[in-house]
Design a protein that fits this description.
Number of helices: 4
Structural class: alpha+beta
Cofactor: Mg(2+)
Radius of gyration: 18 Å
Distance between the termini: 56 Å
CATH class: Alpha Beta
CATH topology: Inorganic Pyrophosphatase
GO molecular function, one term: inorganic diphosphate phosphatase activity
Number of domains: 1
Order of helices and strands: HEEEEEEEEEEEEEEHHEH
Largest sheet: 5 strands, mixed, barrel
Helix content: 10-25%
EC number: 3.6.1.1
Strand content: 25-35%
Family: Belongs to the PPase family.
Number of strands: 15
Shape: globular
Protein name: inorganic diphosphatase
């Protein structure tokens, strides 16, 4: 019996009750006009207590509608979570903004083309986007990074996707959308989506109990067997229920180590600097 790729992908996405990454589904709920606070825990180092910095999230519109927006404020002033939150949280740690909590379905992302870049639900052809099955990790991005769509990767031969660098955060806690955390980068996958390079950094919240034991991608493979391949296969298949082709991965589909990942982040920070300094054409991107 022949089984279609779409059927396989739908089954993989629906493995929420049997996967190693599962837990009861629960989504962040925010009513119209609600304000809430999230903290950024900046690890001075992993042996010292962290210092919490607070951002205020002000929500406009109803969840699961085109009007939903989550705006970031600090000190009473609206800020951009892409341009105003610093890249670095410490010597070898980076700030990370969670867009999509683990076990969620709604595809949330920062609106790079809107003033102050609020978090909104992604749309396609006038419809809100939802995953066909839950994502098993917290998903977001590193601020002050950008994958330049005019720069071709020297080894992979593809252009950047025009977005900040994505992060798959593998800690045990479910983070609310809009949470800002300090993460340790451990490795990254070079995903190629529709002919564009879309880096997936694998990282962990510095306050997670496992953070002290995870320092490179080899540690993830050893202590969390199946996580890296699980991330790769989830992102390989997740668009196929919409009749899209499988996503590909560069570097023989292997995750690059921490050293190489730090280079990727540094390079994409350089692309962001060129963007905000006006050295690269911004197009429709909102730049302060």
């Amino acid at each position: 019996m022949m089984v279609s790729g779409r059927a396989v992908a739908t089954a993989l996405c629906a493995l929420g009750t049997t996967s190693a990454f599962t837990a009861p589904l629960a989504g962040f709920r925010a009513a119209k006009g609600v304000s809430r606070q999230v903290t950024r825990n900046v690890g001075r180092n992993l042996q010292m207590a962290t210092v919490a910095e607070t951002y205020d999230i002000k929500v406009k519109g109803e969840e699961n509608t085109m009007d939903y927006r989550a705006f970031f404020h600090q000190g009473g002033k609206e800020i951009s979570p892409w341009h105003d939150i610093p890249l670095k949280a410490g010597a070898d740690t980076f700030n990370y903004i969670c867009e999509i909590p683990k076990y969620s379905l709604a595809k949330m992302e920062i609106a790079t083309k809107e003033p102050n870049n609020p978090i909104a639900q992604d749309t396609k052809k006038g419809k809100l986007r939802f995953y066909h099955g839950p994502i098993f990790w917290n998903y977001g991005y590193i601020p002050q990074t950008w994958e330049d769509p005019t720069v071709k990767h020297p080894e992979l031969g593809v252009l950047g996707d025009g977005d900040p660098v994505d992060v798959v955060e593998i800690g045990s806690a479910k983070l609310a959308s809009g949470t800002v955390k300090a993460i340790k980068p451990l490795g990254c996958l070079a995903m190629i989506d529709d002919g564009e390079l879309d880096w997936k950094v694998i990282g962990i919240d510095v306050d997670d109990p496992l953070a002290k034991d995870l320092n490179d991608i080899a540690d993830v493979e050893k202590l969390l067997p199946g996580y890296v391949s699980g991330i790769r296969e989830w992102f390989r298949w997740y668009k196929t229920p919409d009749d899209k082709p499988l996503n590909a991965f560069g570097f023989d589909e292997k995750a690059l180590n921490k050293e190489e990942t730090m280079k990727v982040i540094d390079e994409c920070n350089g692309h962001w600097k060129a963007l905000v300094d006006g050295k690269t054409e911004a197009g429709k991107m909102w730049i302060k």
